[in-house]
Design a protein that fits this description.
The chain is 75% helix and 0% strand. Helix 3 runs antiparallel to helix 8, helix 5 (92-112) packs antiparallel against helix 10 (223-243) and helix 6 (126-147) packs parallel to helix 8. The protein is mainly alpha-helical. It has one domain (2-243).
Length: 259
Amino acid sequence: MSFGIGILAGALGALVGLGGGVVMIPLLTGWLGFSQHQAQGTSLLALMFTGLAGAVAYGANRSVDWPAAALLVLPAMLMAWVGARSCNRLPERNLRRLFSAFLIAISALMLLKPFLHPAASGAASVGFEAGVLVVTGLVTGFLSGLFGIGGGAIVIAAMVLVLGYGQHPAQGSALVAMVPVAAVGAWCYRDFGRADAGVLKGLVPGILLGAAGGAQLAHLFPDAALRIIFAVVLAGTGLQGLRAKVGEASCRASGGRAG
């Protein structure tokens, strides 16, 4: 089952340009009965390995801006720890609702994507660029720790739309930053007993295989149709999560799958 979840998460993420965590977490809670906290911790464990594979590939093609990645990583690692610690204080029900609202926000951004235009390349000063990268790292790191996601979509949007980076350097830098940030978050979740490493042997290969297939399939479908369909699915999942009755167990409770 974990291999199938990995396939779906990797393929759907590649089809619409989202990280696997946004897809993986609802599947882990819905199909394997994970608590919201455990699904998020397991997602971060998986993203460490899938992010590393992507970062190596982009690095080999010289599609990483290393100074930009460094400015992203340091504040993001700090805030990933803060985000994961914040998760530890949230009851299951509140965390599920926050994550559901996050899914709805992501779906709205996907629908708005055609109306957002990149900044002119080279328009930003060095100080402004450094400031944007540091703030992006702070925000992305916190959300990564709080929700168990990689945060690549947020980093790429900031680098492309605000700073005028090309798509490939932005994606490569986001992947490089994702690995240590996911590692910090995953370590915190493991410390709380909220990450299941046992499913990685199926999950990680599934994500890698699914992402490769999804990248190929993406060229066969109109971009607008894919975005609209996936945005509707994300919004529906988010609305369902907001309505669902979830137990009040805190992240401090002992980890483990439901059922």
